[in-house]
Amino acid sequence: DHSKGEETLLEDEDSEDLEVFRPTDKWQTLKPGQAVPAGSHVRLNLQTGQREVKMGEEEGLKYGRDGNRYTEELKESLKKFKEGMDDPVDSKQDENAVRAQFRPIEELKKDMEALDMLVETDVQVMRRLLNQFNNTNGTTEEKITALLDLEYLVHQVDNAQNLVSMGGMQLVINVLNSTDIRLQESAAFVLGSAVSSNPSVQVEAIEGGALQKLLTLLATQRPITVKKKVLFAVASLLRHFPFAQSHFLKLGGVQVLSELFQTPGTEPLRVRIITVLYDMIIEKVNICL
Fold first, then answer.
1. In the β-sheet with 28-29, what is the strand arrangement from edge to edge?
2. Which candidate, 221, 218, 194, places its Cα nearest to that of 206?
3. Which residues contact 200 (CB under 8 A, 6 or more apart)?
4. How far is CA 235 from CA 47, 138, 169, 232, in A?
5. Per-residue pLDDT for 199 more than 60?
6. Structural domain boundaries, residue 251
């Protein structure tokens, strides 16, 4: 019987030969670790929980014609694969090849330390921006860029306080007197962001004369874009700061906002104006209560 002959052959083969499974046209149980030739059919026996295999139709023809040669080729491939895994020389070569693709850890540490030295802190960036603004040879565009970069940084409480300690706050306040409306707008933007929810910086701005300069810009003819940023700065300066609100009233701030509200062409500002006055009234009522 041909199938029995095959079974006898399998029994005579050593343990290494069991890694190569030679299917027949009958379903047979596949043992763990056995290789299955391409084209074979594999299924899971739900009753036994084991995988079973038999040759496919095309594979059966091939196996019938040249089964021994195919098996020997598969066995040889598996043998080479195992030898490649166990070969210490090849493993060492592979390890060296991998090492060659990466830099030593000590070299990487040195590069990282150098990189840390090159990274600027916020304080260093702010100092550089202030120097850029003060550069007498700098263009207006460069000064505006420096102010806008400062505005981004002073949203953080610590950075706004550092701006004061550097003398940058007074510089920004003085720029409100600039003859260039673009610089006025940018300075008001920086001022409003710096004093927002930052009591110590609000005090410095009031003492530096910021409120009076802002009201002057609102009371005189300026583009709507400038007045939007100025209103933003005024609102930020007055919010939760009774001393600034008192100073605002003494400087005639309510009258300035009232006249601005009634000026033709200032419609986009009217909601902002009402909001500033409303917030002051609400804070006053809450204090009295």
1. 28-29, 51-54, 41-44
2. 194
3. 161, 164
4. 79, 31, 17, 5
5. yes
6. 122-288
* DSSP 8-state assignment for residue 269: G
**Residue 217 in contact with residue 230, Cβ under 8 Å?**
yes
Tens-place pLDDT, residues 108-151: 777 666 655 556 899 999 999 999 999 989 999 999 999 999 99
Is residue 43 situated within a structural domain?
Answer: no
The amino acid sitting at 29 is T
How high is the pLDDT of residue 218?
97
Domain-located, residue 206: yes
> Minimal CA–CA distance to 200: which of 234, 232, 169, 233?
169
CA distances from 94 to 49, 191, 247 (A): 40, 62, 77
Dihedral sign from CA coordinates of 190, 286, 216, 213: negative
Establish if 167 belongs to a structural domain.
yes
Has residue 77 been placed in a domain?
Answer: no
Tokens of 219: 């009371």
- Number of CB atoms found within 10 A of residue 191's CB: 32
CATH code (residue 166): 1.25.10.10
Q: CA 46 to CA 14: how far, in whole Å? A: 30
Return the closest-CA partner of residue 130 out of 162, 178, 157.
162
Q: How many domains would you assign to the chain?
A: 1
Q: pLDDT tens digits, residue range 236-263?
A: 999 999 999 999 999 999 999 999 999 9
Give which of 82, 159, 63 is closest to 120, Cα–Cα.
159
Token couple for 85: 């895994």
Region 268-288: mean pLDDT is: 88
> Which sign does the torsion angle of CA 125, 126, 129, 130 carry?
negative
